[in-house]
Design a protein that fits this description.
This protein has 85 residues and is mostly helical. It contains four helices and no strands.
Length: 85
C-alpha cells in the first residue's frame, strides 16, 4: 500500500511537468518538420515562399487528420487553387 501511494505521488509530481515537456517537444518537432520539408520541396524546384506555404499547410492538416497523405493532397490542391487566382 505504501509503495503504491509513493509511486502515485511520484507520478503526479512527474506529470506536473508533462505539459511543458509536451509543448517543448511539439515546438521542436514543428520547427524540424518545417525545415526538413522546406528543404526537400525546394530541391524539387519549388520557390521558397510556396515551399513554406506548403509545409505550413501540411503540418496543420497532419495535426487535424493524422494522415500525411491526406494533408499532402489537400495542401497541393490549395496551392494549385491559389496559383490559378
Amino acid at each position: 500500500m505504501r509503495f503504491t501511494l509513493a509511486a502515485s505521488l511520484v507520478l503526479i509530481l512527474t506529470c506536473s511537468g508533462c505539459d511543458s515537456f509536451k509543448q517543448g517537444f511539439t515546438e521542436s518537432f514543428d520547427s524540424s518538420y518545417k525545415q526538413s520539408c522546406r528543404d526537400k520541396v525546394m530541391q524539387k524546384g519549388i520557390g521558397q515562399q510556396d515551399a513554406e506555404k506548403y509545409c505550413d499547410c501540411t503540418l496543420a492538416k497532419f495535426k487535424e487528420t493524422k494522415s500525411m497523405d491526406e494533408a499532402a493532397k489537400t495542401c497541393i490542391a490549395e496551392l494549385k487553387l491559389g496559383a490559378n487566382r
